[in-house]
């Protein structure tokens, strides 16, 4: 019997999901990694992660996506959660204005705990509930532009823009590290042996744990 070695990727990118409780982080994760959605999912306790491997510009990229509780009382982790993360999806619920107001707080947390070069995307989730909208798409887009973030409205329920959100983050990360690699090569060409090491992720794939819908 042949075993597929789980090392068949060129890059491993750690991405963190953050945002208030109930905005749909766990369902975004399960939609992206297993194409599943759960209407009655429970609040996440602790930290989980799931992975999905994709092609980005001809390279095999494994996205390792970490999910944790939005609820303050479960959040005793922070620095370990953000360590090694090269991307972040900050999620709010388009029907709950407060979750959008709190995005500032999540960005501050990223600034305090994550790498300063982390790629950040803002996602307004539950776009299927347009009739209950509390945040105009235009306002969120303006805010994202001001903060230098990319932005999409998503629906984990209807599988709308979830793929696109992760693809955008992965492509942005890939382009940044490709540019760094090129710059390092050029520096090498001038001063041999002075290249820069590029760290794209520090966790190995045997960490691979599946998040479980409706049981967490
Ligand atoms: N209508 C709609 N409901 C959604 C969507 N995404 C998630 N939900 C629902 O919103 C509720 C909360 O979703 P979760 O994914 O558990 O939210 P979370 O952000 O992980 O919450 P915490 O783990 O507490 O931080 C669940 O009842 C989901 O079914 C969506 O795109 N549309
Ligand atoms: Mg959750």
From TrEMBL:
The lineage of its organism: Eukaryota, Viridiplantae, Streptophyta, Embryophyta, Tracheophyta. GO terms for cellular component: plasma membrane. CDD domains: Rab11_like. One of its GO terms (molecular function) is GTPase activity. InterPro entries: P-loop_NTPase (IPR027417), Rab_GTPases_membrane_traffic (IPR050209), Small_GTP-bd (IPR005225), Small_GTPase (IPR001806). It comes from the Eukaryota. Belongs to the small GTPase superfamily. Rab family. It comes from Dorcoceras hygrometricum. Its main location: membrane. PANTHER family: DRAB11-RELATED. It is found in: Cell membrane. Keywords: GTP-binding, Lipoprotein, Membrane, Nucleotide-binding, Prenylation. The keyword GTP-binding applies. It is a lipid-anchor. SUPFAM superfamilies: P-loop containing nucleoside triphosphate hydrolases (SSF52540). It holds the Pfam family Ras. This is Uncharacterized protein.
């Amino acid at each position: 019997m042949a075993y597929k070695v789980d090392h068949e990727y060129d890059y491993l990118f750690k991405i963190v999901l953050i945002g208030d409780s109930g905005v749909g982080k766990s369902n975004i994760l399960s939609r992206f990694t297993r194409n599943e959605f759960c209407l009655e999912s429970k609040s996440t306790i602790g930290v989980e992660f799931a992975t999905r491997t994709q092609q980005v510009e001809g390279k095999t990229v494994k996205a390792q996506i970490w999910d944790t509780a939005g609820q303050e009382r479960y959040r005793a982790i922070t620095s370990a959660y953000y360590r090694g993360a090269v991307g972040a999806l900050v999620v709010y619920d388009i029907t709950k204005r407060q979750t959008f107001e709190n995005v500032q707080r999540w960005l501050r947390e990223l600034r305090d705990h994550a790498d300063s070069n982390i790629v950040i995307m803002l996602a307004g989730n539950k776009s299927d509930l347009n009739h209950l909208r509390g945040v105009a798409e235009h306002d969120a887009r303006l805010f994202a532009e001001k903060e230098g973030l990319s932005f999409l409205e998503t629906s984990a329920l209807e599988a709308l823009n979830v793929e696109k959100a992760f693809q955008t983050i992965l492509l942005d990360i890939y382009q940044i590290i490709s540019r760094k690699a090129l710059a390092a090569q050029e520096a090498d060409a001038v001063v041999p042996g002075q290249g820069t090491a590029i760290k794209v992720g520090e966790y190995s794939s045997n960490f691979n744990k599946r998040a479980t819908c409706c049981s967490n």
